[in-house]
Amino acid sequence: MSEEFFPTIPKIAYEGPKSRNPLAFKHYNAAELVGGKTMREHLRFAGAYWHTMRNGLGDPFGGATAERPWDDGSDSVENAKRRVWAMFEFLQKCGLDYYCFHDRDVAPELNDLAASNDALDAVAEELKKAQQATGIRLLWGTACLFSHKRYNQGAATSPYADVFAYAAAQVKKAMEITHRLGGEGYVFWGGREGYATLYNTDIKRELSHLAALLRMAVAHKKKIGFTGALYIEPKPREPSTHQYDSDTATCLNFLREHGLMGELKLNIETNHATLAGHTMMHELEVAIAANALGSIDANRGDELIGWDTDQFPTDLYLTTQIMLCVLRMGGFSTGGLNFDAKCRRESFEPEDLFHAHIGGMDAFARGLKIAHAILEDGRLEAFRKERYESFDSGIGAKIEAGEVGFSELEAYALNQGEPLTRSGRQEMLENLINEFI
Ligand code: XLS
Ligand code: NI
Ligand code: NI
What we know:
Elements lengths: L12 E2 L9 E2 L7 E2 L2 E2 H5 L1 E4 H6 L22 H18 L3 E5 H4 L6 H22 L2 E6 L18 H20 L4 E4 L5 E2 L7 H22 L4 E4 L9 E2 L4 H10 L6 E6 H6 L4 H10 L3 E5 L18 H14 L7 E3 L10 H28 L1 H9 L6 H7 L5 H11 L9 H11 L1
Parallel strand pairs: 1-2, 5-6, 5-14, 6-7, 7-8, 8-10, 10-12, 12-13, 13-14
Antiparallel strand pairs: 3-4, 9-11
Helix pairs in contact: 3-5, 5-6, 6-7, 10-11, 11-12
D-xylose (XLS) binds next to loops.
């Protein structure tokens, strides 16, 4: 890296909670051990290419504001290659060990598929050099199947077979590039896999097409020897009125119905959870219960604005809840915490990218330490376990083992009288969590 893209920003260092330096970590200390693993091993932070390098920060009422001096705004491969080094300088200075991209974030979409593929190959070589120079790795890749006009009515769920074919070709290439770069995962986010109106939509047919594309992806993964994980990313709407991958439970049902359970896991995003009317913890717990939590898109929404605002996570309750789930699961394997988040439109200077990520990383470092302390303390886990103890022996154990049916339970209930219950102690447990925050 000869040219410097963020000349006024040093490598962000850990300075501890007393530091007043805004360009320092107060809590994220990569090498610090938390329960036998370093923070960087637990958290596996990734930067998102699309937000960091490609998002001009426009909103529905106004255009781009972001100042990105290294970017000449052209669709040239040269510009794309220069951007690679800007991204990697950013990742390195911020201490982000991973990155994620869409094919069209890193390389331009040109006049035809062959030309776009060539451009992607050329930029992938540059990415490979940057990975080798920095040790930064690819958490996951994906294909952008929602921006181009051809995908106006979906990609795999488009009513046009030629569009399906184009999408399949694009996914094939993006998977191969992800594999070439040693990616640990590959994401399917169905940006326009849904509908705008049911008057023109055959849901059954569209869902079977979506499943067909995913089956082809599973087959191609095996064919090329890609050992990373495949993930579906749920989101209920936006840009479609209704997206088929609405939430975790819907995705799990879809995978089961089409025989894909076990082949794909989920990449769960906070702002998508809240758009679906769930908490992030709900989405994570539902996925974990099905052994299907793969990775996390770390961000948050805004309580007052109704859309996917993709803000950086700073809420300690949120990061604590997420890390409680991740630790209970036993940690990430192929997944990590990808900051699928962007600065506010008002925060248009390059320096803001650093403040944003530092805040997100510090918030997760605290969430990790707090969640670890809660688990070590053991009272929360003990309460939860004890709450179900009537299923550990006696009639409960027989129910769980499938040894009794209605007749036995009727006889038992007739003999037992009115069942006793105990308080759920929600307030006490909320107070317990606050002891640690
Ligand atoms: C958009 C999604 C997208 C995916 C990757 O809302 O979060 O950024 O993570 O296609
Ligand atoms: Ni996302
Ligand atoms: Ni999103």
